UniProtKB/TrEMBL annotation:
The chain crosses the membrane at residues 12-32, 38-60, 72-90, 96-116, 123-142, 148-169, 181-202, 208-227, 239-259, 265-285. One of its GO terms (cellular component) is membrane. This is DMT family transporter. Keywords: Membrane, Transmembrane, Transmembrane helix. Pfam families: EamA (PF00892). It is a multi-pass membrane protein.
Length: 294
């Protein structure tokens, strides 16, 4: 499909499109977590990326063999960041609740939004976010407490998300957005697939599990990415960023509804604080990176 086709007018208004994308991403994450007992977190990550690559390649048809060295120099780091982000995120939600993992992951784009700021309000948002992280972090090992490695992996995924945003900005100047993400998804697949083959349990894959994996790729990557790209041309970056700040809350609800993951009142407060900090930073920060999640 051509770039023009990828920009075809959406029958949805932009705000409902972004909201559907947010729900789709977190629904896909909940479905993916349901695959972990069978194929493992690394196996599920590999399946998602392989299938999402196929979908995006079919939809955007990037001319992979015709890209220049400069274009590949932008695609490869983007794909590396995307692959490591997906792998560390899936490993984190194997250990901690979905909502808390997404909350911690949001620290990456949040930090990118406020870095270098001197506005008093931005320091307030940093205080909100820091308080949320303190409330989540397992300071002492106790029965039933959060897995410290899961927390570290979620923060690592957030750091990769920040890198993904930075290198994605450069990529968008060299390759049309849809084609660039499709090419980057191929690189991400090549990064993660060796881990999936060695550490995952892909030999347990059944037709039913494969169908669920297709659902994960569709819900987590293909559908939300398409909806977000349709909305980005019609929404301001501030509005888009505020809507994306709903993700930690939506992830928490998805984990509760689909996975029966229970949070303590302090953990719910932490999710709210990070979401408010992210939305506030979007409103006041000079730099407004768009935290599109793929």
């Amino acid at each position: 499909m051509t770039e023009a086709a990828g920009r075809r007018a959406s029958p949805l208004s932009p705000i409902p499109a972004v909201l559907i994308a947010v729900v789709s991403v977190q629904g896909g994450a909940a479905l993916a977590k349901g695959l972990f007992p069978a194929v493992g977190a690394t196996g599920a990550a590999g399946l998602r990326l392989v299938l999402a690559s196929v979908m995006l390649l079919a939809f955007f048809r990037p001319p992979l063999t015709r890209y220049t060295r400069a274009q590949w120099a932008a695609i490869i780091p983007y794909g590396l960041a995307l692959g490591v982000m997906n792998l560390t995120y899936y490993l984190s939600i194997a250990r901690i609740p979905l909502g808390l993992a997404v909350t911690l992951e949001f620290v990456g784009p949040f930090a990118l939004a406020v870095v270098g700021s001197r506005k008093a309000l931005d320091f307030l948002w940093v205080l909100f976010a820091a308080t949320g992280i303190v409330l989540i972090t397992p300071w002492t090992a106790r029965p039933g407490g959060l897995d410290p490695l899961g927390v570290v992996l979620a923060l690592a995924a957030g750091a990769c998300w920040a890198v993904y945003i930075l290198v994605g900005g450069r990529l968008s100047k060299l390759v049309p957005e849809g084609q660039g993400v499709a090419a980057g998804m191929v690189v991400a697949t090549l990064v993660v697939l060796p881990f999936s083959l060695v550490l995952g349990h892909l030999e347990r894959l059944t037709p039913a599990l494969f169908a669920a994996s297709v659902g994960v790729a569709l819900l987590s990557s293909a559908l939300p990415y398409t909806l977000e790209m349709m909305a980005l041309g019609k929404l301001s970056s501030r509005t888009f960023g505020i809507l994306m700040s709903l993700e930690p809350g939506v992830a928490t609800v998805a984990g509760w509804v689909f996975l029966r993951e229970q949070l303590t009142p302090l953990q719910w407060l932490a999710v709210a604080l990070v979401s408010v900090a992210s939305a506030g930073a979007t409103l006041t920060a000079k730099r407004l990176p768009l935290p599109v999640e793929v």
